Amino acid sequence: MPTLGPKPWSKTSLLVEPEHLRFGGGATETILTPLVAVWMLVAIVLILALPRHKVIIPFLFSCLNIPIGQVVVLGTVHFTVFRILIIAGLARRAAERGPSPGRKFPGGFNGVDQVTVLWTVSALTILSLQWMDTQMLIHTLGDFMDALGGYLVVRFLVNDRKAIRSTVIALAVTCVVQGACMLNEQITHENVFSYMGGAPFTVRDDKIRSQGAMGCLYAGVFGGAVVPLFLWLWTEGKSRTVAFAGIAGAIAMAITSNSSSSLLALLGSVVGLAFWFLRRQMRLVRWGLSLTLVALHLVMKAPVWALIAHVDLTGSSSSDHRYKLVDSCIRHFSDWWLLGYKYYDQWGYDMWDLSDQFVAVALTGGLLTLVFYVAIFSRSFGAIGTARKQVNGNRGEEWLLWCLGSVLFANVVAHFGINYMAQMMMTVFPLLACISIAAFEARQEIVRSAEAPDEEMHASVATAGETMSWLSA
Fold first, then answer.
1. Which residues pair with 208 in a beta bridge?
2. Are the C-beta atoms of residues 163 and 442 closer than 8 Å to each other?
3. Interval 164-208: pLDDT, tens
4. Where are the domains of the chain?
5. What is the pTM of this model?
């Protein structure tokens, strides 16, 4: 999820008035290549014209493959292509006619929807109070539109099982395209997306870190986290070619990014899937994990979160920085709990780099915003667990729910290594929407199962009545 608010500032920049806190970024003029302009127009037409369950394909594919730096500047107002597509999606939602709100949000406005809205509103409110600056407010309103608008669009578009399948296909095609381009970066040392405003490849410790359209960290984490969804698509028996290509592309993205966060996301996906065989004992697993962490905290010389400093899967990770970031956030709780804290870079060397999503949410939004943000994942896991129990015995439905949970778990793991920006959050919003629909369909299955015996009983009574009438005649 994007962190509402400014990019981290250095000590020097904190001494002067920020110059580029505008709506959407700091570009002084429109940056839009002809290819992206045509692509954007075609995507808008498809968003407005396609059947609802298919709109998610051009919407997601465009949001995730057009570099976030492509922007239209109108006066001092900035509209990234990403934001323009969200506006188009909101227009499609406003134009949709239905007999009830449930048509726009199947299953109603559920708990996940509620805490997501509360998170965005809380972040906007607290960040505005923290800075008390007009330019900051305008900038934050832009981030607010990206977060809340993006979620509402995806929640509207993913409205049934067909839409879930379309969502997974869109993510798979995205991984195929970006995986191929990131492999090409390793060979040719050239990022195809740089012609559309993407970043050129980087090198760390003689290893090329492929960037793709989203940047090495974001692209790698995205690829590593979504693998379980493609496995589900494979087991569905349809679109197996797309599913296989998606798995290959996603793994390529995670590996060519050459970052520990990407590999940890991939590992999180694998671990989540491995617990499939213990799906009915997850309460014991959770308690066991919690007690283990408490025990480690009691016996370790350092706090238990110091384990983060020992995670290095590439030999060049800045895991020690991640540990110090979490440690500083906990030790300076009194600084940020109420209205966040904008001088966090003064806590130590390199502390301006908020490469931990939970820390970033806390420092920009305070404790209340952090609670709402954590509740998004808590309620999502809860919805998956409840739904799995409701469809117990239906392996197909259980497998879908488990794959969704594995992707969610992989994203939680990745949260400790990167700060999710707006474009990256568009890989999480579809997941939350799919969870809502899968949980809703599980409840509907229970209702249908309960109604079936009643219908059979009424049919039997009617048949018996007809037989008695025939005998009497």
1. 203
2. no
3. 999 999 999 999 999 999 999 999 999 999 888 888 878 887 889
4. 13-472
5. 0.89
